[in-house]
Amino acid sequence: VDAQLTIRNGHIPYPVFATATPKVAPPQPAFLQVRSAPPRNTEFLTVLVPSKRTSTAGGPAITRIAGPGYLGLQAKRAADVDIVGFRNNANPETLNFQNWTTDADVWSVTISGAEVKMFALQNAHHLTRDGRQLFESDKSINLAVQFSEDIQISCNAVETTILKIFVGTSPTGVQLDQTEVNKSLLRFNEGVVSLTVPKGQHTFRIRLR
Fold it and tell me: Which residues neighbour 56 within 8 Å (Cβ) at sequence distance 6 or greater?
């Protein structure tokens, strides 16, 4: 790519960032300006790995992933594996990576061996792993699901939708926005619980014990 680099005086009037001019003015800053012809394509991804100490800072083993309609990364840290993918076209096609399938614009999953610890999806209708439907909705939805002793769900629905989540065992109870849901309103079939999600932002807690 043809580019032009320019270094210019970056002086900012002192009243912008200080109440008074110091007796000895510090060296004036400068800024670097880059001008270039529009690139054919540009992509970059920044990964932040917080650490309490510089001596212990270190990133996970990160590899780039890509396939028809998406790109992203896979990060291995201790026993966990994180997968993050981004749709890079406007086609409403199903995206496939290894044993995962989804139609989300953005997806993120964390697994530990065969265990799914978390998944998050944006503008999605379904997510499957090894052919098993982990999530399905009849309308597009944004959601994040965390699996532990209970299952915690945060979601944002553009309109009322039916949400199906694979839980494996019949739940002992469900809370919607911290209010208990009448069991007669829940549907459970072959490890999948079905919930009606009202329009807007909501949280669910599915109790399994």
Answer: none
The stretch 94-105 carries a mean pLDDT of 93
What's the token pair of residue 99? 């044993």
Whole-angstrom distance, CA of residue 54 vs CA of residue 19: 35
Angle at 71 between CA 66 and CA 74, to 5 degrees: 75
* Secondary structure of residue 95 in the 3-state scheme: strand
What is the SS3 assignment for 55?
A: helix
Flag whether pLDDT at 28 surpasses 70.
no
Give the residue among 30, 106, 40, 103 at the shortest CA–CA distance from 73: 106
In angstroms, the CA 92 to CA 125 distance is: 11
Per-residue pLDDT tens for 38-50? 666 666 676 766 6
CA dist., res. 195 & res. 204, Å (int): 9
Dihedral angle of Cα 172, 174, 179, 184, to the nearest 10 degrees:
-80
Looking at residue 54, the DSSP 8-state letter turns out to be G
Strands (E), the chain: 3-9, 30-36, 61-67, 70-77, 80-87, 95-97, 100-102, 106-112, 115-129, 132-147, 150-157, 161-166, 173-176, 179-180, 187-189, 192-197, 200-207
